[in-house]
Amino acid sequence: MKLIVTLTRDESGVIVAECPAVPGCVSQGPTEAEALENIQEALVACLEARAASGMPLTVITREIEVPV
Q1: Residue 37 belongs to what H/E stretch?
Q2: 48 within domain boundaries
Q3: What is the pTM of this model?
Q4: CA-closest candidate to residue 15, choices 7, 23, 26
Q5: DSSP 3-state assignment of 7?
Q6: Which residues pair with residue 16 across a beta bridge?
Q7: What is the pLDDT of residues 10-58, one digit of tens each?
Q8: How far apart, in whole angstroms, are the C-alpha atoms of residue 12 and residue 54?
């Protein structure tokens, strides 16, 4: 399964990784590589928990264009 993740740097310099398609699935790391590795592990756990609870694995996400 391929999922989009976002990476942002917080105020302390840590890279925060989130997956918009799996609400509440967040991880972090001191580098982008470690944050990506950590979010992969977190996603496996989140997807297993959602499946065990009978929840859909992901929520629908769409790309839209917004004029700026």
Answers
A1: helix 32-52
A2: yes
A3: 0.87
A4: 7
A5: strand
A6: 8, 28
A7: 999 999 999 999 999 999 999 999 999 999 999 999 999 999 999 999 9
A8: 37
- Provide the pLDDT for residue 50: 96
12 part of a folded domain: yes
Number of domains within the chain: 1
**In whole angstroms, what is the distance from residue 34 CA to residue 23 CA?**
21
Residue span of the structural domain in which 27 resides: 6-52
Is 60 a domain residue?
no
Max CA distance (Å), the chain: 42
Q: How far apart are CA 8 and CA 39, in angstroms?
A: 13
Q: What angle do CA 21, 28, 32 make, to 5 degrees?
A: 95
Q: Considering the domain boundaries, does residue 1 fall inside one? A: no
Q: What is the DSSP letter of 34?
A: H
